[in-house]
Amino acid sequence: MLSQRLPPDFYARSALEVAPDLLGKLLVHVTVEGIVSGYITEAEAYMGPEDKAAHTYGGKKTKRTQAMFGPPGHAYIYLIYGMYYCFNVVVATEGQPQAVLVRALEPKDGINLMLTRRRFKQDLTPKKLYQLTNGPGKLCQALGISKEQYGYDLTGNKLFITPGIPVAPENICTKPRVNVDYAGEWAQLPWRFVWKP
DNA sequence: CATATGATTATG
DNA sequence: ATAATCATATGT
Questions:
Q1: Residue A55, Cβ neighbours under 10 Å: how many?
Q2: Which tens digit of pLDDT belongs to each residue from A7-20?
């Protein structure tokens, strides 16, 4: 069965539209060690120049953020706290630096590989399975995402997103974004989207 | 060149 | 509650 990619125009919308739409989609990473994938369960919208919580606030363009200024449907990856990577999807249009941070996944394929990569210590009970990828740093570790995948085309064949499973609107809830207190009013906005099946 | 810090996680 | 840990951003 062929894994169908989400079309490029899926990403050519504002982060606020793409973020909730990304829930239930399947994020897949094909590596030499094997294939790992998971359903997206949590995402946050970052709206660019006007959004005080965004890396591109004020239109700030640096070596780190340049991918956000590029065409949509590509990966924006950065290192945080000196030890964890965060995976984002670039959205909107070229020159419009918006992105969606993928905060959590529900593991699907390659769970064994995820366990190895994360050096998971606890017992593998179905109940604790979600702990494998329930944070931005965790899911990057589990999927083997690092700087190497910076700028990757998400309609390509290494790191890509497929339609996954549909999510009913009533199963989506919104919350304020995490750890952006410094952003004043912008921190309060319900731009975090969580899928609760 | 020097310094401060973060869209986090694991552990006590 | 707090340490871990470093690329990036920013200032001098």
A1: 18
A2: 999 999 999 999 99
Q: Which residues contact A145 (CB under 8 A, 6 or more apart)?
A: A29, A75, A77, A85, A87, A139, A159
> Is A191 in contact with A57 (CB distance < 8 Å)?
no
- Host H or E run for residue A156: none
Q: How far is the CA of A57 from the C1' of B12 (A)?
A: 37
DSSP A4: P
The DSSP call for residue A83 is T
Q: Within 7 A of a protein CB, which nucleotides of strand B?
A: 6-11
User: Tens of pLDDT along A109-140?
Assistant: 999 999 999 988 766 666 688 999 999 999 99
Supply the pTM of this predicted model: 0.95
| Strand C contact at CB of residue A158, distance < 7 A | no
